[in-house]
Write a structure and sequence with these properties.
Blueprint lengths: L1 E7 L4 H4 L14 H14 L6 E4 L3 H11 L7 E4 L16 H7 L1 H9 L14 H18 L5 E5 L1 H11 L18 E7 L2 E9 L5
Parallel strand pairs: 1-4, 2-3, 2-4
Antiparallel strand pairs: 1-5, 5-6
Helix pairs in contact: 2-3, 4-5, 6-7
Length: about 210
Amino acid sequence: MQRLYFVRHGMTEYNLANRVQGGDIDSPLLPQSLEDAKKTGLCLKDIGFKHIIASPQKRVVETTRLIASQFEQDFTIHYTDDLKEFGYGSWEGAFIPHWKESSPDSFYHLRHRPDLYDPSEFNGETYSELIARGSKAIRRSIEQFPDTDLLFVGHSITWTTTLLSLIGTELKDLRSQEPLANTSITELGYADGHFTLNAWNQTDHLL
C-alpha cells in the first residue's frame, strides 16, 4: 500500500488574528511555527520521501522548506496551484467574526453545510471546485510517482474536504471532522484505486 502524508502549513499571523486566509492571500508564519515545522520534519525524516508535492503559497513554501531541512535523503519539491487554499473571493483578509455577523447563512453553510454553500455573491470558490482540483493533484501525483510514499504540504480546508471526499464522504458531511491543526499530519493509504484513512490530525510530534 502506498502511503500519502498530508501536512498543514504552520500557523500564520492571519490565523492568530482570526482573519480569512484563502487561496489569494498570505501572511507570515509565527516564530513558533518555524520550530513546529522542523519538529514535523524530524517526525517524518525516516520515511525517506523522494517527492514532496505542495501548494505554491508562501506560508506553505516556508513550511515545506523547514520540514525538508530535516531530511537527509535527496528529494524533489513539486509545486502546483491545484493545492492552493479555498478561494474566498472578496472575503479574503476579512475579520472572520465580521463575516459571521454580516452574512450568517453564508458563514454557517461554509462551516457546517458544504452542500448548501453558495459563494457566487462574493466571487468565491465552491466546495465542488476545490475538491475537483485537489483530487486531481493527488491522483496526478500518484500516477507520476506510483512506487513510493509521498508527502503533501498544503492547507486546512483543501486537505479536509479533498481527503474526506477521496475516502467516500458525502459533500454535506465534509466539515464533520475536527479541523486540521497547523503542522498536523494526516495519512491516507492508497491501493488498487482505493483510498483509506490511516490517521487524522496527528499532533503528538509537536509536544
